[in-house]
Amino acid sequence: MIELLQEGFVQRAIVSGIVISIVCGLVSVFVVLRGMSFIGAGISHAAFGGVAIGFITGINPMITAMIYCLAVAVGIDTVGRRSRVSADTAIGVFFASSMALGIVLIGISRRYNTDLFGYLFGSILAISKTEVWIAVIIMAVVVAFVLLFMKELFISAYNEELAKVQGLPVNVLNMLFLTALSVAVVVSIRVVGIVLVSALLVIPGATARLLANNPFSMVAVSCVSGVFSTLLGLVLSLEFDLPPGGTIVLTATVMFFLVFAGKRVREW
Q1: Tens digits of per-residue pLDDT, 62-86?
Q2: Helix 203-211 crosses helix 244-267 at what angle (to 10 degrees)?
Q3: Mean pLDDT to the nearest integer, 175-203
Q4: Are the CB atoms for 229 and 214 separated by under 8 Å?
Q5: What are the Cα distances from residue 232, in Å, to 8, 172, 236, 250?
Q6: Is 129 exposed, middle or buried (0-12, 13-18, 19+ CB in 10 A)?
Q7: Rg of the chain in Å (alpha carbons)
Q8: What is the C-alpha separation between 224 and 247, in angstroms, rounded?
Q9: CA 102 – CA 194 distance, rounded (Å)
Q10: Domains, the chain, ordered by start
Q11: What is the Cα–Cα distance from 50 to 97, expressed in whole angstroms?
Q12: Which helix (H) or strand (E) holds 34?
């Protein structure tokens, strides 16, 4: 294991895992508080359509996925707020249509790209230096956004009507949060894949909700639990030759249930 840690690809995996865990940990808190687990799953699966566009056009799939996810996030918010269609229904429409678009485009291309498997199920051990730096830059932007608007985000998450009464730009905050959520989804694809990325947007925040006593400590606990589960999952995957993405998510899930069980025992 020590020898593996000296390898460049493992070091890049560790750095990118920590960075992406912090991004998802920050976003996860507000996903949980807002009850937006389904929208996280919707946007993460919508990324498949964006990735497919990249494959068929020859553009970097991460770029097309980012643009497509932002468009889907705006579409969900617009349809959910300005029509009689509920937000859940809008998510379902975009979720299904984006997956269908991805399947059709991959079919049109008539070729199977091995990189597609990495986008679907994650390939943290194959992350390049450029992708690491992109993840670091995105982390800096998301951290700055959350720190700058943390109070406003918590108020609107707990009570949107109260936020409007206090004069907060709720619609703008919602759009900015959806943007941060889309960014978190895309940057996490290379770690756990499109299929599992929604787990990183929910489980750390859910774990923090069980442990933290106030909103600000919830953010810290979410990030720490995300980083810990990612690093432990990565170590276990290397030690036992397991798929990294699935191992990371299962590690985070086990941590959540251990915390849940511990809370139940204490309450008894």
Answers
A1: 888 888 888 888 888 788 777 677 7
A2: 20
A3: 82
A4: no
A5: 18, 37, 6, 10
A6: exposed
A7: 18
A8: 18
A9: 12
A10: 2-261 (1.10.3470.10)
A11: 12
A12: none
